[in-house]
Amino acid sequence: MGDKVDVAALAKLSRLEVSAEELRALEKEIPDILSFVETIKEAHGSTSSPRAGSGLQNVMREDGEPHESGKYTKELLDAAPAREGDRILVKQVIKRK
What is the pTM of this model? Predict the structure, then answer.
C-alpha cells in the first residue's frame, strides 16, 4: 500500500477542519488504517446462514422468579455517590451547544 494519502485534500472534500498538527498525525495513521482494511477484505469468511438442525439453539432462559418493579430502587439510590431527587447524579461527559 505504498501510496501517499493526501489528507489535506480528503479533509477539504469531507468539509472537515483539520489543524496542521492533526494533518501530520493523520498522514502517519491513514496508510496503516487502509492497510488494515485491505487485510480485512482479504479475509475469507462464511457467508452462508445457519440452517435448521445445525446444532444451534436458543440459550435464553425463563426468568423464574421476577421481582416487582421498584423493589430495589431505594437501596440502589442510597448506594449512589450523588443523587438529585429520585435520580442518580452523574458527571456530564458530553456538552450540549
Answer: 0.37
